């Protein structure tokens, strides 16, 4: 069984991918379609289904990657297009991407800065003791300074970001406790 023959066979059975068809929601009709395709290709229905699921998922990943490349504004970079993108194009109007969400707000940078640094420089973000409530103007300046570093930290790789955090912590330790 070749991938092309499976893709062609599935494309001729809209009951397997067209959600708007009433027959799509009829498991008996979908099972029959898989049995027909499997008989035509000479493999079991289970093998056909698993292979189709892989191909469909790969198509969706590639389609998303193409869209991300276009919207990133990275310019015209060359990339090798997946060889089945064109023949699987019939799926384009039948599949929808899921909307994802995040529990992190747009301006929530607290996860980007080491908690130890925030605790030292931005006590307003943590429960305060009486002594820490003094000199709130300096705290605000320190907090703003640390938040101004976030864009630079975000541009770094994970490893470089960890190195930068460690160096910042070392500098603060040296200043506070001497060398």
UniProtKB/TrEMBL annotation:
Residue stretches making up the MADF domain: 5-96
Span of the signal peptide: none
Predominant localisation class: nucleus
A GO term, aspect molecular function: DNA binding
InterPro entries (UniProt xref): BESS_motif, MADF-dom, TF_Adf1
Localization terms from the record: Nucleus
Keywords of this entry: Nucleus
Gene Ontology cellular component annotations, sorted alphabetically: nucleus; transcription regulator complex
GO biological process terms on file: regulation of transcription by RNA polymerase II
Domain BESS positions: 139-178
Pfam families reported in the protein's UniProt record: BESS, MADF_DNA_bdg
Name of the protein in question: Transcription factor Adf-1
Protein source organism: Gadus morhua (Atlantic cod)
């Amino acid at each position: 069984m070749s991938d092309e023959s499976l893709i062609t066979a599935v494309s001729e059975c809209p009951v397997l991918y067209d959600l708007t068809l009433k027959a799509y929601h009829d498991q008996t009709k979908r099972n029959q379609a898989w049995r027909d395709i499997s008989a035509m290709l000479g493999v079991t229905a289970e093998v056909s289904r698993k292979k189709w699921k892989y191909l469909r998922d790969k198509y969706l990943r590639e389609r998303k990657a193409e869209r991300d490349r276009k919207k990133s504004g990275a310019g015209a970079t060359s990339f090798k297009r997946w060889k089945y993108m064109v023949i699987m194009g019939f799926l384009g109007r039948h599949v929808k991407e899921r909307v994802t969400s995040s529990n992190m707000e747009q301006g929530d940078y607290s996860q980007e800065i080491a908690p130890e640094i925030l605790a030292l420089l931005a006590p307003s973000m943590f429960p305060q003791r009486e002594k820490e409530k003094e000199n709130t103007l300096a705290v605000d300046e320190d907090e703003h300074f640390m938040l101004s570093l976030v864009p630079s930290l975000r541009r770094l790789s994970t490893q470089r970001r960890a190195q930068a955090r460690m160096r910042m912590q070392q500098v603060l330790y040296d200043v506070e406790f001497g060398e």
